Amino acid sequence: MVYSELVAEFTDSVPCGAPEGNDVGDTAEALRQARDEGQGIMNALRVLVLEDSLIIAMEAEDILRLAGVDSIDIVGSLDQARAAIAAERYDFALLDINLGEGMSFGFARHLLDAGIPFGFVSGYSDIRDFPCDLQHIPLLVKPFDEKAMRDFLQRLLPAAA
Known about the structure:
Elements: H1 3-13, H2 24-36, E1 46-50, H3 54-66, E2 71-75, H4 78-87, E3 92-96, E4 98-99, E5 102-103, H5 105-114, E6 118-122, E7 139-141, H6 146-156
Parallel strand pairs: 1-2, 1-3, 3-6, 6-7
Antiparallel strand pairs: 4-5
């Protein structure tokens, strides 16, 4: 089960309604208006997010949607990421470096071979600790906000910005 399915299962179990001033419907409407007004920085891309922390993955998903990404698949393991790449075509990927099961550097090399652009998302800010052949890959340092994600996406996909 991928994170997207887990999120759907969880949200289906949460009672309707939100505390005063925290209406999810208002937030969703604001997102739609921003996209309609052309505030997104890209159009209709399919993105793979490899992240083992559901909270961080959901944060990335929200910000990517604000940036104009329509289709986002979230996976939490290298096996799920490999299966997703085999089954679907992605325009780019965001990879957490340190997954509970190991590092994503091998998968990153697979994406390079497949010609799929990607960037790393990590709490590690020193790329000199990365393998030499991957030190040129854009890095988004956690924790991140919308501005940091937009700057990162512009480095990752300069033609889309």
